[in-house]
Write a structure and sequence with these properties.
5-stranded antiparallel beta sheet, 2 helices, Structural Genomics Hypothetical 15.5 Kd Protein In mrcA-pckA Intergenic Region, Chain A, SH3 type barrels, mainly beta, OB fold (Dihydrolipoamide Acetyltransferase, E2P)
């Protein structure tokens, strides 16, 4: 009889490229459990504690730290060392009064230190939306969560306010809607995929082509130093309305 269920082990060599780990210093790495993010765009909590933050030397030590309820993700205590932490998630250590934001870079995902103000909310991108019974809008977000928008008067077409690839500002952990950032020209954004991953700029132009999928439309962004670069719409994550709503690492 063949083996059933998920595999319990993962070698370092075939691990996702976004993981900031050494590929040849050891054979095995942490095998995560299915979670809110895809495997290729997230990090196991044990890997964050051991390999990135350096709080542990072994996976066993990392597991012990996490099981002691020392770490929260998006305001909620996580006790599973194999829990997946992804893009724009907030990792906090209450005992040290420190918080980190998961951001993309050219080399992969990394943790950016943030203050208490930035740790009070999270940015979530709209991946899909559905109009449900009563005219309310059901939004599917990039982190696997959902949000129901209560529309008081469906006749006013308020549901057209929310579009896919727009970004919502949600408080944590209670997830109250604090703001809505549209993906339009002039919006500050960060690239989350492709060869320009990690670059930050303002949207200059968005290609208009009727026979092309919207997510594949070409977008031109302009960096702080005036340099322009291009990517597809699916790789653009809006950070604010006119200025970024989160602190970003300093660029050279």
């Amino acid at each position: 009889m063949g083996r059933k269920g998920e595999g319990g082990h993962l070698k370092r060599k075939p691990a996702p490229k976004l993981w900031p780990i050494h590929r040849k210093e050891a054979v095995w790495t942490v095998m995560p459990k299915p979670g809110p993010h895809s495997l290729s765009r997230s990090l196991p909590l044990a890997l964050i504690v051991r390999d990135i933050l350096g709080f542990a030397k072994t996976a066993k030590e990392a597991k012990r730290i996490i099981s002691q309820e020392k770490i929260t993700v998006n305001g909620k205590v996580r006790r599973d060392e194999r829990f997946l932490v992804g893009l724009m998630d907030i990792v906090s250590i209450p005992d040290n009064n420190t918080s980190y934001l998961v951001l993309p870079s050219k080399k992969g995902l990394f943790l950016h230190t943030i203050g208490s103000n930035d740790a009070a909310f999270k940015l979530s991108r709209i991946e899909d939306k559905t109009v449900v019974k009563g005219g309310n809008v059901h939004l599917n977000l990039h982190d696997g969560s959902n949000l129901l928008i209560d529309v008081n008067d469906p006749q006013k077409l308020e549901k057209e306010t929310y579009h896919t690839l727009d970004v919502l500002k949600l408080s944590i952990p209670d997830r109250e809607l604090l703001g809505h950032m549209k993906l339009t020209e002039g919006s500050p954004a960060i690239v989350i995929g492709g060869k320009n991953m990690g670059q930050v700029g303002k949207v200059v132009t968005i290609e208009k082509q009727a026979d092309k999928k919207r997510r594949n439309l070409l977008v031109t962004l302009k960096g702080e130093k005036g340099n322009q670069f291009q990517t597809i719409l699916d790789f653009v994550f809006v950070l604010g309305v006119t200025d970024s709503s989160i602190s970003l690492p300093e660029t050279d």
